[in-house]
User: Fold this.
Amino acid sequence: MGRRAKQQYVNNKDFLAAMIEYRANVQEAKDKENDRPIVPTYVGECIMKIATHLARKPNFVNYTFKEEMISDGIENCLQYIDNFNPEKSNNPFAYFTQIIYYAFLRRIQKEKKHLFVKFKMTEQTNLFDTTAATQEHDTTKNFKDEIKVSEWTQQYMNEFISDFETNKRRKIKKRKV
Assistant:
């Protein structure tokens, strides 16, 4: 018994044919000075499938902002759909996968930057110690004990800040060279 071929979620030949047809429709609309045609449903479905399947890969699976990554990937594909040239490449699957992959990396960097800002603000304001201070009218509870951050969380925040700042300095130094 031979092994069955793995079922592909995007048929590259059909995808290429749809892209060629779409490009022809876009060119025809330009020539006639008509409105630009909408992206065909099949092309949109292919792009959506590529983005959702790529988000399931081990290097992207554990991010909490997966939907944002997928949305960014789809948006970038639609932004650069006209740059796909069937005369140079007959592999739209690879073209759009690469666009989505880099959109994912940009989203991850953006989210890391947001997390850095949050952690840095928390560190700078000493939020967990000062906001939980007992006021003279607080007689029943010591809120400071309830808000305290675990040692693991504090360590994670400190390491994240340190790593982020080190990487940023390294990139700046690299740009100068």
